[in-house]
Amino acid sequence: MTDAAVASTSVEARSIHHVGVAVEDLDAAVATYERLFGGRLEHRERVEDQGVEAASMRLGESRVELLAALGEDTPVGRFLAKRGPGVHHIAYAVDDVGAALADLHAAGAELIDEQPRLGMFGLEVAFVHPESTHGVLSEVVSGG
Ligand code: CO
Fold it and tell me: Residue 90 C-alpha to ligand 1 middle, in angstroms?
C-alpha cells in the first residue's frame, strides 16, 4: 500500500517504452503531436472492451500513446472526469512481463494485472497501481 512497503526487485527497465496521455479528442491530439513535435502516427486502434481508442505516436526513438475514452464509464473516461486531460501512465520496457510481475508482487507492489495480458498494438503488458509508484500509473511492456 505504501511506497515504503515495496522491497527491491530484479526488474531492470530498458527504457521508457511510451508515455500514455489521456485526451478528449484523439484526432486533435494526433494533429497536435504531428504539428508541434514532428510526431508520426505509428498505430491507431479502437478496443471496445477496454473502452478506449489509442494512437501511438512515434517521436524519434520515443513514443507517446494518446488515449481517448469511448464512453464516460470506462477507465480513461473516469480518469478524464476526475483529473482532466494529461499524463495517464508511464510504460517501461522490460524483457519479460510475467517475470517482472512475479518480482513486483513478491516485493509488495500493488498490481492491477496479476498476469500479463495482450495490450494494444500486439504488446504484452501489465499495470502497477499508482499507489505503489508515487501517484503515476505504471505499465510494464514487452514485445515492441
Ligand atoms: Co500504455
Answer: 7
500493488: which residue's cell? 110
Task: Encode pLDDT of 39-93 as tens digits.
Answer: 999 999 998 888 999 999 999 999 999 999 999 999 999 999 999 999 999 999 9
pTM of the complete model: 0.92
Three-state SS at 51: coil
CA of 140 to the centre of ligand 1 (A): 8
Q: How far lies 137's CA from each of 82, 89, 108, in Å?
A: 15, 5, 16
What SS3 state is found at 3? helix
Type of residue at 105 = H
